[in-house]
Structures are given as structure tokens and as C-alpha cells.
DNA sequence: CTACAGTGCTTGTATGTACAAGCACGAGGT
DNA sequence: ACCTCGTGCTTGTACATACAAGCACTGTAG
């Protein structure tokens, strides 16, 4: 049949209209959480569109977390919706530059250490095996905004210690040498250790945001990093929905 | 031809492999930011897959912000990207129950106040207009894990104060009464005020994670809430990529 | 020299078809 | 009573094809 192209000027594409229709049903309460919505074939019959078009609409809504699809069972309205907020944490260098400020990185130290039990576990290496360690301070207009305390698996980045981190951030170097396939994050609030407070030029009692990030290349851990940011100087923001 | 199904056991689908290949090229620096990557037809010829399969891979990467596609021009590597991590913050009650623990909510206070200048601004109401205020503590196995300090716009939830928050969380009630269309979040690290520390049963110097959330229904603000969580007891986690 | 239509590329959408994979249920055997 | 296998539904992926829409370049007409 192939009846594409009869669409008028401003009419949105079919798959988008299907998405809107479904969001409308959910928003109006007609399809509450956990409700099973019609199958692809039923929607095909009801709307007179191709299954691939329906499939695309449902797949995208599932990717957005609005729907939950289970092969063999059906498609259901997800329940999380009311409460799942999404945060994005970006590369610090990019973020600073995007604000139009100057970014600089100071290498405090760079050396090779023997893996402690915790470190061996974190990086998935043998106890006592050599591990690279670096301590870098990121400055925004000469004010310290982040302390980057990083351990690197030498097997995946043997030349790590030879790099100049004021020219290329450790992050950028590592993602070039060993592209990641999986990333793991945690965010918490902590008090800085005395030496950390000194490096960040803050008082010992000032709370900090701590982001822990572990980066995997396949099954192996490339690097594990602690990003310590003064609570007053940085925060994570996000906005979701109609961007007003 | 239709040669589907020759795929082995654990082999990921073709479109996913194409995505990985592209992410690898970008990660390795072979395709830097702003670089134009091969067209769909070129990839079809190079990889021996159908254009729809290539299209799906590129479309999904574009949706993730990794690629930028311009009709008539081509597909380009987006800038920034290199380290955007995504965090999900869920409803605390759900999260606790999902861990198999007991969740309880204690209402500390519930009253009507007059909007201060800051409050009026935050909620978009007149200065001095009545505003509902509630203070609820969330407990996980009888240990306080979150202090919820909430202000509500009476216009959108007039019966708010009459609710029993030990039966239904304020959150859950509000999302039923006034479904949100937009949410705004910030996360930072702070020290608790003395009275807050007392309610959370922590020391005054213990750092806390503070999540601020503003919820909109259309153009109007439904509620603005401060979620204060002891740094040691809770954190935000996320995992991205091949789920191990 | 300039304006404009044409051409050839690109991505965007839509359809029809095919087979794989997963789940629930019931019929049948043990 | 219990186990097993088949059947019919569901979603997941892959393909071939078609046309629309947008962009840059080129050749031609003025």
C-alpha cells in the first residue's frame, strides 16, 4: 500500500501521534499504573497503522520509562513515573567551559602504589599489584571546584603516568585509551579529610558532594575515581518535562 | 533474504552492535566531536546490514545525545557527551520497600503559613498568601533516613492538610491530586540546622545530601520540597551501559 | 554576474513481511 | 497428582522497499 506522504504540513508523524494518544490515556487516568495496554496487533487493527509504526511508539515510550514491555506477556503502564527524576552529571571541564569560565587542572601527585585490599576489590586486581594513582585539582577561574582522586588499572592504560593532565584531563585520556562500556556512579554527602579541605581551600567542617565513579571496559575495571566538590560551590541540576 | 535468526546464544542484536561500534570509534578518538560519520547507506554497504537496522542504531544514539543528525546533511558526533552520567532519584517509600525494609512516615507538623518573599517566589503565589507546610520524617526500619520539608500551593491541593501522611506519603497524594508536568531538581551537600539534626538523630556536623524538588502542573507550581538525607545513610546510585 | 531550477546526496517516516524468543495455558501422558 | 509438551498469544529483531523532506552543489537562462 505504502500510503506515506499524504500528511499535511504541520501534522506530526504517525508514531508521535500514537505516543501522544497513549500519554493522554495515561494522564487522564484511563490507563492507570500496571494496566495492560492493547497489544501491538490490537493497536494495528484499531489505528490502521503498520505494526512497525506502533512498535516504534511503544519502544520509545518504554525507553522513556513510561511503559514496561515484557516479551510474551504484553505492555504495561509503568508505575515509577510519578517519582523517577533523572540527573545528568557532566564532565567537569566541559561544564566549566560551557559556562564561559576558564578551566585549569593542577596535578598534585602522580605515582604508583600497591593495591590495598579495598583497592584490589574496587579495581578487580590482585592484592598488592601495582596500581596508578593521581590527584588532580580542577579550577574554575582559579578557584578549586573539584578534587579528583583517581586509581587506574595499569593493564588497561600502561602509559597513564606519563600523561600531562594540564593538557588533557585524565578522564579524556582514559576514554581515548580504553573506551568504557559500563559506568557506575554513587553520590553522597561527606566531610572532607583535613588534607582534602586544604587542597580545596575550604574549612574542615564544610560539607562536600562526593561522586564515586567506576568505569568498565568489558568485564574489567579501567578506573575508579572519587570526585569531591565543595557543597557551596557546585550542585547538580536537572529539569524534566515541558521545558517551560 | 531475511537472514535473521542465525544469531548465536549470547550475541547482542545487530543494532546494538552497531551502536557499540560507533561508541567505540568515538571513545577511541577516531571520530572526534563534530566529525561527520558515514551515511546510512555507506554503513549499510560496509556492514552488510539493512538500512532500517542502521537507522535504528543511529536514531537511538541521537536520542541519547551522542550523535546529531541533520536531514540532508549527515550524521555528526555531538560535542560534550564524553561523560554524561544519568542518575535516577526514586520515591523514598518505594525504594525502601524494594530493599525489603519497613517504611514508615511520621508527621512532625502540618500547618498553614503566610508566604514569605522567598516562598512566594518559589511557589509563584502572592506575598503573604496562605501556603500549606508539612514536615514529615521517613523511617527505614525505625531509623530516620529522610526529612521532608514541604510547602504546597493551596490552589492546587486544597485538602492537603486533611491527609494522613502515615497512610499515604505527601508525594503520592499530590501526584494523584495534581499530576505534574514538569519537575525541577537540584542536589547539594549541606550541614543540617540544629533542629533538623535532632529530628534525623544525627550530630550537627554530619553532612547531609539535600535534594530540592519543585513540581509544576502546567505553568503553576504545585509543591516545593526539601529532602534532607544523612550522608552516611543514603546515597544515589546509577549504572549505565551493559548491565554486567 | 546573478538568479533559479535541477540533480544527487542526506535523513525521516511508513509499510509489509519474516522469523526468533518468551510467557501462559491447556491437553495429554505418566 | 504431577510433569511435559504443544499451541497461541505476546514482544523483539531484521529485512526490503517506498516516498517525503531537507541541504548543497551545478549548470543554465537571463
UniProtKB/TrEMBL annotation, chains A, B:
Keywords: DNA-binding, Histidine metabolism, Repressor, Transcription, Transcription regulation. The keyword Transcription regulation applies. It comes from the Bacteria. Coiled coil: none annotated. It holds the Pfam family GntR. PROSITE patterns: HTH_GNTR. CDD domains: WHTH_GntR. Residues 12-80 form the HTH gntR-type domain. Pathway: Amino-acid degradation; L-histidine degradation into L-glutamate [regulation]. SUPFAM superfamilies: Chorismate lyase-like, Winged helix' DNA-binding domain. GO terms for biological process: L-histidine metabolic process; negative regulation of DNA-templated transcription. InterPro entries: Bact_HTH_transcr_reg, Chorismate_lyase_/UTRA_dom_sf, His_ut_repres, Tscrpt_reg_HTH_GntR, UTRA, WH-like_DNA-bd_sf, WH_DNA-bd_sf. One of its GO terms (molecular function) is DNA-binding transcription factor activity. SMART domains: HTH_GNTR (SM00345), UTRA (SM00866). Repressor which binds to the hutP region in the histidine utilization (hut) operon. It blocks the expression of all the hut genes in the absence of inducer. PANTHER family: MANNOSYL-D-GLYCERATE TRANSPORT/METABOLISM SYSTEM REPRESSOR MNGR-RELATED, TRANSCRIPTIONAL REGULATOR PHNF-RELATED. This is Histidine utilization repressor. It comes from Pleomorphomonas diazotrophica. The lineage of its organism: Bacteria, Pseudomonadati, Pseudomonadota, Alphaproteobacteria, Hyphomicrobiales.
Amino acid at each position: 500500500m505504502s500510503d506515506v506522504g499524504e500528511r499535511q504540513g504541520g501534522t506530526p508523524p504517525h508514531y508521535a501521534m500514537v505516543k501522544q494518544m497513549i500519554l493522554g490515556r495515561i494522564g487522564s487516568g484511563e490507563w492507570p499504573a500496571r494496566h495492560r495496554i492493547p497489544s501491538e496487533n490490537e493497536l494495528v487493527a484499531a489505528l490502521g497503522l503498520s505494526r512497525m509504526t506502533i512498535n516504534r511508539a511503544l519502544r520509545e515510550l518504554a525507553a522513556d520509562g513510561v511503559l514496561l514491555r515484557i516479551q510474551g506477556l504484553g505492555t504495561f503502564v509503568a508505575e515509577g513515573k510519578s517519582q523517577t527524576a533523572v540527573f545528568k552529571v557532566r564532565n567537569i571541564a566541559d561544564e566549566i567551559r560551557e559556562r564561559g569560565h576558564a578551566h585549569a587542572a593542577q596535578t598534585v601527585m602522580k605515582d604508583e602504589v600497591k593495591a590495598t585490599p579495598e583497592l584490589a576489590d574496587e579495581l578487580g586486581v590482585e592484592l598488592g599489584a601495582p596500581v596508578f594513582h593521581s590527584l588532580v585539582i580542577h579550577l574554575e577561574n582559579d578557584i578549586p571546584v573539584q578534587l579528583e582522586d583517581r586509581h587506574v588499572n595499569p593493564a588497561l592504560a600502561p602509559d597513564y603516568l606519563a600523561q600531562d593532565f594540564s593538557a588533557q584531563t585524565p578522564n579524556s585520556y582514559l576514554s581515548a585509551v580504553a573506551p568504557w562500556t559500563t559506568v557506575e556512579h554513587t553520590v553522597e554527602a561527606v566531610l572532607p579529610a583535613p588534607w582534602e579541605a586544604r587542597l580545596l581551600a575550604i574549612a574542615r567542617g564544610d560539607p562536600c558532594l562526593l561522586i564515586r565513579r567506576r568505569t568498565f571496559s568489558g568485564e574489567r575495571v579501567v578506573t575508579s575515581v572519587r570526585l569531591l566538590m565543595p557543597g557551596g560551590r557546585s550542585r547538580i541540576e536537572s529539569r524534566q518535562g515541558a521545558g517551560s
